[in-house]
Specification:
The structure is a single chain. With 336 residues, the chain is of the alpha/beta class. It has 2 domains: 2-116 and 296-332, 2-Layer Sandwich (Nucleotidyltransferase, domain 5); 127-291, Nucleotidyltransferase, domain 5 (2-Layer Sandwich). It is 41% helix and 19% strand. The protein has a 5-stranded mixed beta sheet with strand order 3-2-1-4-5, sandwiched between helices. A 5-stranded mixed beta sheet has the order 8-7-6-9-10, sandwiched between helices. Helix 1 packs parallel to helix 2 (84-101) and helix 4 (161-171) crosses helix 5 (178-186). The longest helix has 30 residues, at 228-257. The radius of gyration is 20 Å and the shape is globular. Bound molecules: 5'-O-[(R)-(carboxyoxy)(hydroxy)phosphoryl]adenosine and zinc ion (ZN). Residues 110, 114, 135, 266, 299 line the site of zinc ion (ZN). 5'-O-[(R)-(carboxyoxy)(hydroxy)phosphoryl]adenosine (KG4) is lined by residues 10, 135-137, 162, 165-166, 177-180, 183, 266-268, 270-271, 298-299.
């Protein structure tokens, strides 16, 4: 059972081939770079870039795998959540290709892709597990009991962790995307007298709130001229605050649920400091920690092909209806 996955929810064009018997056959990604000049993703530019890149990327993917399009059993695409125009490009192409090949197309929830991505790796986590999903648009802790069975135990009331990295990077003049840039700058920094808040950790519960962190950083940044050394110090303090906040809530959720597997998923999951911290905490709690390679933490086609393959194998076919869901709560997802 061979599934082509197409991811176009934001500014990355991702494609991949997943085979139920042999695993991941090939994957390719085009990361749009034109947005950096604007300090964030420009939806219209993203859509146009997907249109230009998607077909050549799929051609190259099939050539790499040395397989004809007729070998495909289904096409999975990201149906939401995400930017409407960007989603439409992937959905339209997936539907048209599937129709012309006489095979089913499946609309996949982007966050389901992220949650399942660690299973793409050798010795990936079996169900059930606890997941920390941290991306540019979402921050949540979910109880994952099976395919399509996700209970959100806590999420952000406002900004996502990735958003806090991105917005703060802008304040510090570190460029876009902010996560990797802050992380690089933080390597030149170290502990200082500045301690940024760990929002909502002083009260019970698993909710997050990251919008105040940026304000705290703006105020701290105004205290003295921003030279390289100060930038590194602020980047370090910000990364520590975000990582510490995420880790405190994960520990709380692990103790409350008794889960013995913890998964880190989403773009911020590529953060080395976060991985180190969660490794330490998991070891203390006797919990196995799983995360995908950095390229499968950030947006990619492999996670969509994989989720599509799992759903197809369970008998899901979406019919011919064409639809995207730019806003699609994870809690509305159902098992196949
Ligand atoms: O999952 P993703 O690629 O896209 C969304 O679904 O949002 O996540 C993108 C986010 C961005 O906010 C980016 O700054 C952040 O992930 N990110 C990181 C790192 N790599 C990407 N944040 C911290 N450290 C990183 N190494
Ligand atoms: Zn994502």
């Amino acid at each position: 059972m061979l599934v082509l996955g197409i991811e176009t929810s934001c500014d990355d064009t991702g494609v991949a081939l997943y085979d139920r018997d042999t695993g991941l056959r090939a994957h390719a990604l085009y990361s749009q770079i034109g947005h950096a000049a604007f300090g964030g993703v420009v939806p219209e530019l993203a859509s146009r870039d997907h249109i230009q890149k998607l077909l050549p990327l799929i051609d190259a993917l099939m050539r790499e795998a040395q397989l004809p399009m007729t070998a495909l059993d289904a096409i999975a695409y990201t149906a939401g959540p995400g930017l409407a125009g960007a989603l439409l490009v992937g959905a339209a192409l997936a539907r048209a290709l599937a129709f012309s090949l006489g095979i089913p197309a499946l609309g996949i929830h982007h966050l389901e892709g992220h949650l399942l991505a660690p299973q793409l790796e050798a010795h990936g986590p079996e169900f059930p597990f606890l997941a920390l999903l941290v991306s540019g648009g979402h921050t949540l802790i979910a109880d994952v009991s099976g395919l399509g069975r996700y209970t959100i135990l806590g999420e952000s009331r406002d900004d996502a962790a990735g958003e806090a990295f991105d917005k703060s990077a802008k304040v510090l003049g570190l460029g876009y995307p902010g996560g990797p840039a802050v992380s690089r700058a933080a390597q030149q920094g170290g502990p200082s007298a500045l301690r940024l808040p760990r929002p909502l950790t002083d009260r019970p519960g698993l909710e997050f709130s990251f919008s105040g962190l940026k304000t705290a950083l703006v105020l701290a940044a105004k205290e003295a001229p921003l030279d390289e050394e100060r930038r590194a110090m602020l980047a370090f303090a910000l990364q520590e605050a975000i990582v510490d906040t995420l880790a405190i809530k994960c520990r709380r959720a692990l103790i409350a649920t008794g889960h013995k597997r913890l998964v880190i998923a989403g773009g911020v999951g590529a953060n080395q400091r976060l991985r180190e911290r969660l490794h330490k905490d998991s070891e203390e709690l006797g919990v196995a920690l799983h995360y995908p390679r950095p390229a499968f933490c950030t947006d990619n086609g492999a996670m969509i092909a994989y989720a599509g393959c799992l759903r197809l194998a369970k008998g899901q076919t979406d019919g011919g209806a064409f639809g995207i869901r730019p806003r699609w709560p994870l809690s509305e997802l159902t098992p196949p």
